[in-house]
Amino acid sequence: MSKALNPQRRVIGDRAVVNRDWIREFTGASAGTAARWYKLRLEQPEEHRHPEKERIDGTDFYDEQQFRNFYTWFQQEKASKVLKADPELYELDPEDVVSINKAAELLKFSGPSVIRKYRQANPGYFPEPVDEPVQGPTGRMIPGFRVGDLQDFDRKRTGDKLGKAGRRPGPQPEAPVGRPSALEEALAAELSAHAGGEPLTATQLAEQYATEAIDRDGYHPGLAAELSVQYGGPQRSWEYAVRNALKHHPAAAPRRSEADRRAAIALSALRERGDVRGLAASLAREHGGSPDVWSRAVNAARRLANPTS
């Protein structure tokens, strides 16, 4: 169970100062997020920069007004970076139903897996699909969404209080797996542990976790997806961390099987071309082998691309 916050606010002369727990309570941020705001302060515009810490009675405090100015700027920055929906979204009838693939396209997401991750990791944030699935591009039945619900979702997108992959900061008891802020909390702990030396970055910490997982259980193609579920964060970021871990610790990586090689090729093709009809046959023509073998590779790639679907 996480430790209860102990927010403190003090008045020194004509100004108020607050501690880190006050900042977390005020913003709803996780420990890792609050630590990162301070760590990256020199990369922020000087006029909006996170305040420097002041040590008072063994506790770090920060100028309250400066922090409020920083946080106002930070929220505005996040809101300005929210993806803008395709104008077509508002040209459609609100009662129309579109597939999850089309919904991702209208909202300018990288693919339907973004919607699946939103719904899995952040219950209630993204609209619920309609009761009846719709036919996807390959003929499979896939979730459909009411256009009006997508329009409402888009109007509410401000970027406020959303962490990586759209997760709200802090524990989410309704989430079916993992702790969305686990990596951030671990990063905060590592930052504290390395207070006297060079702190780890989130990328370095992720690579460290990937290396430990490989040393413990060996490498397998679904490792990045498992780490994403366990610690939070986008699967692609974990794929990068796993690649770095294998590059820096090659002895930990077993020789890739032929099935794994085909699955990797199929996964790359899925990302480049989409889940199109006839993909297995195309890969068989391009790389040799029977369509049945490549069909199994495509199915394996689908599981890797959408481990929770």
Question: Gist?
Answer:
Residues 152-163 have a biased composition (Basic and acidic residues). Residues 144-182 are annotated as: Disordered. The protein is α+β, with helices and mostly antiparallel strands and 309 residues long.
Describe the sheet with the most strands: 4 strands, antiparallel
Count of helix runs:
14
Unreliable stretches = 160-182, 190-199
Please give the number of β-strands. 8
Sheet/helix structural class: alpha+beta
Number of domains: 4
Instruction: Indicate the overall shape.
Output: flat
Amino-to-carboxy terminus distance: 30 Å
Helix-strand blueprint:
Elements: E1 9-12, E2 15-19, H1 20-27, H2 31-39, E3 53-56, E4 59-63, H3 64-80, H4 88-91, E5 97-99, H5 100-106, H6 112-121, E6 134-135, E7 141-142, E8 144-146, H7 147-156, H8 182-193, H9 202-217, H10 223-231, H11 235-248, H12 258-273, H13 279-287, H14 291-305
Antiparallel strand pairs: 1-2, 2-4, 3-4, 5-8, 6-7
Helix pairs in contact: 2-8, 9-11, 10-11, 12-14, 13-14
Polypeptide structure, described:
By secondary structure, this protein is of the alpha+beta class. Helix content is 50%, strand content 9%. The chain has helices at residues 20-27, 31-39, 64-80, 88-91, 100-106, 112-121, 147-156, 182-193, 202-217, 223-231, 235-248, 258-273, 279-287, 291-305, and strands at 9-12, 15-19, 53-56, 59-63, 97-99, 134-135, 141-142, 144-146. The strands form 3 sheets. Strands 1-2-4-3 form a 4-stranded antiparallel sheet.
Structural features:
309 residues; Multidrug-efflux Transporter Regulator, Chain: A, Domain 2; 4 domains; four-stranded antiparallel sheet; 14 helices; 8 strands; flat
